[in-house]
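With this grant's support, we have settled on a layout for protein records. An illustrative entry appears below exactly as we store it:
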Amino acid sequence: MKFKLKLWHLFITFCITLIIIRFLTIVKLFSLFFSYIILLLTDFSSALNQLNFELIDYFVSGVLIILLPLIIFFRFKNLKIFQGKLDFSSLVIGTLFLIFIFSPLISNSHPDFQKNIGLTKLLPPFSNTIFLNFERNAINKPSGIDKYVEIKRAVIKYSFDTELIFVDSIHVGKKILYYQNQNTFEISIDSLGAKQMIPKLDTRFFLLGTDEFGRDIFARLIYGARVSIFVGVCSVFLSFMIGLLLGSASGYFGGMIDLTLNRLTDTFLSFPAIFLIIIILALFGNSIFVVIFVLGFSGWMSLFKIVRSEVMSLKQKDFFISAQMIGLSAKQLLMKEILPVILTPVIVNLVYLFGSVILAEAALSYLGLGTGTNHPSWGSMIDAGQNYLKDAWWMIFFPGLALVITLYSANDLGQKIKVHFNPQLRK
């Protein structure tokens, strides 16, 4: 019997591989988690002050990297969705959703981290740089809140680190001398002893190079994927809710309601969506939630047309008329009689819409109207890279490649779902 890779193999293999590669980080993360629990029990107010989204993000990633493969293997691997054949499209989409969950563990640096730009900017792929790091003396171990903060600093990556210095070379004698761009700097060993700090020399590897500010392209690509997926899923869900409700109301009630909603939909379809998007963004700004609202609000029309036509056809069916006669409410008719029947064309439309939304978000970021400067985006990375095509081709190549592969995979997956539920299209 020929062995076939399935989707659940991808999830388990990805998690196990990530555990092996980031084993020490995961151990430190659980040490941070238990340290936080102790702090919560001993100093509740300080623990609450330390809690933020970034910390929760790391904790969730650490717990799921252990639980997710176990849950899938022992509980859900026999589900139809996980038994699906693993082809290129499902591999890409599945990997993107795993990246969305485990971004803090996959990336070894903060996407906005920059330091000593003169040494780290525009480094090509597979570059190594030397850095000097200062760690607390192990003889004087901190306790309480200080211990928690020390562990947190070792685990969570920040956009700036005052105790890390990138150098060209270093010389240690009575003083520590380090060199940056032909400039010499010195640090007194006595001052480090007074601060109970120990200097350590290490290297940082940039898999995909760095940008014009010395930021890691790989880290920005990983977190950019998270932004794209979050915007895509939320926008598609908003479009789904609007299209489903309006399409069901139009097809079910008919008359003036149908006429009004049809004319409203035709108006939106005739008006260029980009102008509507730009107007809303100009009025409310370009935060990530405004972008989600704009893209979701401008993408429901095709779903409305599908739902409306399906509902109008279902109204004439015997099973639907029987359901009406036994007294089912409009809500019950929608959930029990309409939605299960129209689910196939709706799912196909949503998959296509997901790819379109990711492209639209990238286009808005390229124009400077995307999710803002607080979040890395593939579109903004492409925008920045176009100014360095000659000197730093990797700045535009890798985000562009990620965008093309994601769009191809989303559209190919939608086509395969369409063929799966309509075998006649295979001919």
